[in-house]
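Predict the holo structure. Ligand: dinuclear copper ion.
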Amino acid sequence: MKHILGVIAVIAAITLAAWVWLGRSFDQLLPLRASEESFFVDRLLGMQFYVIAFLFALIIGFMLYSIFVFRRKPGDDSDGDYFHGNTTLEIMWTVVPLGVVLYFAVVGAGYLGDITAPESNELVVQVTGSQWNWRFDYPRFGISSPELNLPKGQQTVLEISSIDVIHSFWVPEFRLKQDAVPGMVHPLRITPTEVGTYVVRCAEICGKDHSYMLANVNVMEQNAFEAWVRAQVAPPSGGLAEAGAKIAKLNGCLGCHSVDGSTITGPTWLDLFGEEVQLADGSTVVADEAYIMNSILNPGEQIVAGFDTVAMPANFGAVLSEDDLEALVAYIASLSTHDSTE
Ligand code: CUA
């Protein structure tokens, strides 16, 4: 009886200390809560932290108590007492954890129902992952963006997909994560509550530049969002090359092709147009419009020497329109300093 009271005191002390520490530092351990959904997630996580703190104390308490109180006395070589089970204890350590797990399952299912419930006036944004880029399309306004802009307080459904391998959409401040799977569309509902700039990361290993697969998420006031939409739907003022620069950014071309002469995953676009290109099969070709079109549509055909592993997706023919392709070629031509009409 003395030992039972002793070990209960040790467990209570460790549990209390852990709860005080958690109560003080829980918010500092986590990033900002920037969506309605994050409050549900953090409430559930907080409850689990408190249960886990008690379980931690239960194990550590018994261990520390045994180490110090039941230490072998000098000269005592006798065997310890032999126990063959304890039915009451076994029923307790089965029923109590079962009840706790079922309780969390019921509460968690309720929260999941709340945060995934559709609303009638949702803003729809199509999110497309690719190696290594995020692209955001707003079908209601007919605009596309390399950054995710969201109005504060408006429930938004992100329709998440991929054009190549599996990626995963993750904004820690929103506390939600959803896989982007080719051929499938997964919805994710977010209601941002804090104006600010966050970063969407890819949370699924997807190749060489996985860790650089980032895009800004800008949560703005409703009127700022509307102003942004108006500016996007206005007709483009620049020429074809400027449109091509936008398309290159939107579709992730610049994740692999630099425009400053450096080599990333693919050949640079600087001074490419009109140049002689050495191919891996030993032949040479002039980088004219036909060569660049073919390299975009059939990246495995004319491989540049030194780039033996073809990392480029082969499905840009399905992603880009004729106009997009023409604008891209014009942009690449504009990056060439020597006369490209020769
Ligand atoms: Cu996309 Cu990792």
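The domain at 240-334 is CATH 1.10.760.10 (Cytochrome Bc1 Complex; Chain D, domain 2). The first helix runs from residue 2 to 29.
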